[in-house]
Amino acid sequence: MLRHLGRRTFLDAKKLTIFANQERFSSDRTNTIILFVPQQEAWVVERFGKFHKILNPGLNILVPVIDRIHYAHTLKEQAIEVPEQHAITADNVTLTIDGVLYMKVKDPYKASYGVTDPEFAVTQLAQTTMRSEIGKISLDSVFKERETLNEKIVWAINVAADSWGISCLRYEIRNIDLPKAVRDAMQMQVEAERKKRASILESEGKREAEINVAEGRKQARILNSEANRTEQVNEAKGQAEATIAKARANAVSVALVAQALTRNNGMNAVSMRVAESYVEAFGKLAKTSNTVLLPTNTGDVSSMVAQAMSIYKKLADTSTSNTVQDKDKDVDAFITEELSKVKEEFPESKLQLELETERHKDDIVSKNFKRSS
């Protein structure tokens, strides 16, 4: 290197080495006395090696030999690539991060004499600030708080670079590289989370389906119970109406028989009807092979007829003593009384058989009455 310099002294060589980076910002523009400075540029002029002035865009005139254009700065926004670096998070995960820094020279004088290499200084400051901020947060927060991290780096650079005449506009993290083991673990975590969500969605779908099925069954049971209740109510009403109608028909039949007894020779007709019914009933019993318990006086037809006729005679005596206007009322009261007695004396099956044959009594009594008369 000393051979290449020739007559330069060792001190000049040392000075050249120290300010090697600054030479990039030094101007190679020659003093042509009449100069035209481009827009968005600032030229720093030194006179006798001392700062003299800053040339603004447009026409400028300098003194030859005495004035020298030492620095030329662009006032445009510049994008500086920040080299990748290693940083350790709060949960001890090593990351490899790089980014892009956007800066702008706001004071050409400070940018020329406040720092040797503004670009290098800002780049180093961005890297150190990045490592410091990442060390305060976990790996998950690095991805979640990426914008916040960029803002903190910009704020830290502007605080330190204010004396350099440089303004940091923004910083963007470009790439975040994780170790392979961490990437595999994160991939497994993502897959597990997706499987979990799928299982949850599937279980919720099954639950909704079961709820819908149960709700449908509930509604079906409610409707069936209401239908059964309505059916039972209607059936009960129908049976009640049928019973009432049957009772009324029986009452009418009995009333007609009672009225027939009050007529002439009514007792004789009834006696004949009772004897015929008695003989007919015993004739039917003889046709079957079942064992039947009979009263001791089964062969005495006259006694059975006399017993039945005593009841009819009582009815006839009662009907005769009453007036014609009150006959119907007396007959109804008597029928009610006698039916209660018959229910207590005879079995239910026999009573039902007698009630079913009551509807034929009117015709039979009428025939017997005509025959006896």
TrEMBL record:
Q: Does the keyword Mitochondrion apply?
A: yes
Q: Name one GO cellular component term.
A: membrane
Q: Where in the cell is it found?
A: Mitochondrion
Q: Name one GO biological process term.
A: mitochondrion organization
Gene3D superfamilies in the record: Band 7 domain
Q: List, alphabetically, the Pfam families matched.
A: Band_7 (PF01145), Band_7_C (PF16200)
The entry assigns this protein to a family as follows: Belongs to the band 7/mec-2 family.
Q: Give the protein name, as stated in the record.
A: Band 7 domain-containing protein
Q: Which organism is it from?
A: Dreissena polymorpha (Zebra mussel)
